[in-house]
Amino acid sequence: MVKAVIFDLDGVIVSTDRLHYEAWKKMADKEHIPFNEQINHRLRGVSRMASLDIILEHAQKTYTKEEKQALATYKNNVYVSLLKQLNEKAILPHVLEVINTLKQKGIQIAIGSSSKNTPTILKQIGLDQTFDAVADGNDITHSKPHPEVFLKAAEKLDIDPLSCLVIEDAISGIQAAKAAGMKAFGVGDAKHAELIDYAADDLRDILHVIDQ
User: Which of 8, 81, 126, 192 is deepest in the core (most CB within 10 A)?
Assistant: First the structure.
């Protein structure tokens, strides 16, 4: 029986893909590193430093640990500035309906995101007081597909991971959910993950899963 639903943030609750792309593109252009939508697609569900390593695969020089940290900080500063554009209109379709219905059913809800900017994003879109627990990049040392962020969310909820259902749009997130022993509901790219338990185009289909 599902006792808790853990939502990924970016791509499930809100879409900041374009903002991430713009920030990484500005950093890459500054360093004269090729960067396009295809490379950007590989960054989905990946931590900031792991994303940087992917981008630097196309660099003409080798960067030191300190230089990498400086680049990551630069990108994040650009991204945080762009986050000021976000408001409740950025919430993806049917999210509020699903959240309200889950609450009515007594299902606990949490965020499980690799992003360290999760608190800022939730506040910008007016959902910072909505979830029973939030586990994000500030709580973990391993990014998805490692299960740490979802296990941390279950721990904060005080619920057995086996009773949790994760909603993800990235294949790495599905892998993380399954590694945590949780059920996985995929939307977007995650619909095609091999380990998926449920897949749908409409987030509201999660409610049918809960009722099973």
Answer: 8
